[in-house]
Design a protein that fits this description.
With 233 residues, this protein is of the alpha+beta class. The chain has one domain (3-229): 2-Layer Sandwich (60s Ribosomal Protein L30, Chain: A). 52% of the residues lie in helices and 16% in strands. A five-stranded mixed beta sheet has the order 1-2-5-3-4. Residues 2-22, 26-46 and 48-60 have low confidence and may be disordered.
Length: 233
């Protein structure tokens, strides 16, 4: 095993072990203080998943220092708390973004957002997204946003891919068209079909949980620059 691979595995284990008990501020210091290249490449596929994002992750991870990582972690702690307070039908958690920095993942159950097999937002979903936009996205405007749609294994692959894309687009269009979120803030709205199915403890699919839309908030280049300059609040 090469030294770089060993380092990446050790840092991955460290972050996973700290994930249960540490907040984003603590983990931001761990991530920012790492030698970045191996860590950035390791984290690069968690959002987006392209080779390009892995390369960018390696470069940014190497550049962001401990202090900047802590500042970004503090900002993400605030965004996470705001998202948890603003949503009553979503799961809010911390993840690592494509730059190896802390991010926030908000998972909306499709049962709340859409009727079965449809992609028109239900009225309850519109209210939820409006609240989420006004209290989170329109406040933390230096967070970039990615929207990802997923489907269960019911139906054909092609049908589910199209449905998941339509649902991701429906969320994006509502946020930008009705809720006043800047279209430039939302960097991706993509359907992934049956990718990343949710399973039960016995290994069977939890189809209701598999049908979902995930919204990610992660550090924009402006946030990273502000953190590096020590001006991020």
């Amino acid at each position: 095993m090469t030294k770089s691979k060993f380092f990446a595995l050790m840092m991955s284990a460290l972050i996973l072990l700290s994930g249960c008990n540490a907040n984003n501020t603590t983990k931001g210091g761990i991530i920012g203080g790492a030698s970045g290249t191996a860590l950035g490449a390791l984290a690069g596929k968690l959002i987006g998943g392209s080779t390009k994002s892995t390369v960018i992750g390696a470069a940014v991870g190497a550049a962001v220092g401990t202090t900047a990582g802590v500042l970004i972690g503090k900002k993400m702690d605030k965004a996470k708390a705001a998202a948890a307070a603003a949503t009553s039908n979503a799961t809010v958690e911390s993840v690592t973004d494509a730059n190896g920095l802390e991010a926030v993942k908000v998972t909306f159950d499709n049962g709340i957002l859409f009727s079965t097999g449809k992609y028109a937002l239900q009225s309850s979903a519109q209210s939820e997204l409006k609240n989420f936009a006004s209290k989170v996205l329109n406040v933390y405007t230096d967070c970039d946003v990615a929207i990802q749609g997923y489907a269960s294994s019911d139906g054909s692959d092609a049908t589910n891919l199209t449905l998941s894309q339509n649902r991701a687009d429906a969320v994006k269009n509502y946020l930008t068209g009705t809720c006043g979120v800047s279209s430039s803030q939302i960097k991706e709205a993509k359907g992934y079909g049956e990718t990343n199915l949710i399973t039960n403890a016995d290994g069977s699919e939890n189809r209701a949980a598999s049908r979902r839309v995930e919204v990610y908030l992660y550090a924009s280049s402006a946030m990273i620059k502000a953190a590096e300059a020590g001006t991020l609040k």
